[in-house]
């Protein structure tokens, strides 16, 4: 998923000592639905762990990146969180 980093919280550590960072990503694209172009725009909460977290915590806002990962339920069961497994700057 291509997205812009719009919010990065401070780097933190899990109880096991693993670096973690929470982010908010913003995605915008145009897709075709029933032969009609549709603008898709959304903000998505995200989290990264380990080396990815350390790198993203230093990333500037408005950085456009290609993110790879998976969606999971948020810990409180409200909404989803995108778990970033890999990313590259575009």
Can you walk through the features of this model?
Pfam families: SSB_1. One of its GO terms (molecular function) is single-stranded DNA binding. By secondary structure, this protein is mainly β. The protein has one helix at 50-57; strands spanning 2-8, 12-13, 19-33, 36-49, 64-73, 80-89. β5 and β6 form a beta hairpin. The longest helix is centred in the middle third of the chain and has 8 residues, at 50-57. Strands 1-3-4-6-5 form a 5-stranded mixed barrel. The protein starts with a strand and ends with a strand.
**Helical content class:** under 10%
What do we call the CATH homologous superfamily?
Nucleic acid-binding proteins
Count, helices: 1
CATH architecture: Beta Barrel
Radius of gyration: 14 Å
Taken in chain order, the helices and strands follow as EEEEHEE
Beta-strand content bin: over 45%
Strand order in the sheet with the most strands: 1-3-4-6-5
In total, how many beta strands?
A: 6
Structural class: mainly beta
Q: How many structural units, i.e. domains?
A: 1
CATH topology tier name: OB fold (Dihydrolipoamide Acetyltransferase, E2P)
Instruction: Please write the CATH class name.
Output: Mainly Beta
Query: How would you describe the shape?
Result: globular
Low-confidence stretches: none
Amino-to-carboxy terminus distance: 11 Å
InterPro entries: NA-bd_OB-fold, Prisomal_replication_PriB
GO molecular function, one term: single-stranded DNA binding
Pfam family, one: SSB_1
Protein name: Primosomal replication protein N
């Amino acid at each position: 998923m291509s997205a812009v980093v719009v919010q990065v919280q401070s780097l933190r550590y899990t109880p096991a000592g693993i670096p973690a960072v929470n982010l908010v990503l913003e995605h915008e694209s145009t897709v075709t639905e029933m032969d009609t172009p549709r603008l898709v725009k959304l903000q998505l909460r995200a989290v990264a762990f380990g080396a990815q977290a350390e790198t993203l915590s230093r990333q500037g806002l408005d950085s456009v990146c290609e993110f790879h990962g998976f969606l999971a339920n948020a810990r409180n069961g409200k909404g989803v969180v995108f778990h970033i497994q890999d990313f590259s700057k575009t």
